[in-house]
Input
Amino acid sequence: MPDSQLQEIRAELSRRKQIDQIFAILGFLVIFVSILILLGLTLQMAITGISRISPQFFFSFPSRKPEEAGILSAWVGTTLVMLVTTIIAVPLGVASGIYLEEYSRKNWIADLIEINITNLAGVPSIVYGLLALGLFVYILNFGESVLAAGLTLALLILPVVIVTTREALRAIPNSLREAAYALGASKWQMIWDHILPYSAGSILTGVIIGLSRAIGQTAPVITIGALTFIAFLPDAPFKGEFPFISFAWLKAPFTVMPIQMFNWVSRPEAEFTVNAAAAGTVLIMMTLTMNALAVYLRYRFRRGIKW
Output
């Protein structure tokens, strides 16, 4: 090859490397500025509301007096709704991901299902709220209840759980599957004893990230009729007499943390804005705790498994 062509190739490679470096620097600056803005807003909210965070704030009902208002009904409602969401979305999503990745035939129907699931993961949450309003509230007559809210948020995060499960299963080398088959394992034994333990960390991470998205949703639960002011708690899931388990709380009205914050922010008194900032700080801490749990679980699973 002539020297002139070699020089042109080297010049072109050098130019592309410079472009790659410029894009890398721009990407880093965008991420840095975004994190800095988010951190600044979070710190401002925490500084504004830290004076209201106390045991009384956690164990008091909402009130017309800002100094007496608390988030008891809001965080209890959030906990119960997320419990229903987890019970519905996680087993169904993981099972669907396993079936689509390990059992279903690779044809145009599977491709169509995959495309639709991926698209559903990006659908605005208000659409799920409208769907739940027609299906769960009016057709199935669940009413404005904890059950309806939990099912709504389960639908919201179900595509995320399915996609995460499939990606986690795809990351497992086929050699592990072939080794299990070589030892006489059935397909389900291969999945349960070998594939799932290796992919459990990534699956749990996706599940908790999906739940972290659901915990801050406002539009879907407002659409199905969540209360903006509630001064009582649902029935306890457990009771002291046989059968010791009660499901009455599933039909109870509810509110959640984002709606309580919206209610306080809409009030004209400045003191309620401080309450909203305190509730937002608590909600952020709950979300960060869930994400930290996801990171910890992934670390433990990867540390406990040796390739």
In short: The two ends are 46 Å apart (CA to CA). The chain has a mean pLDDT of 84. The domain at 59-304 is CATH 1.10.3720.10 (MetI-like fold). The chain has two domains: 3-50, 59-304.
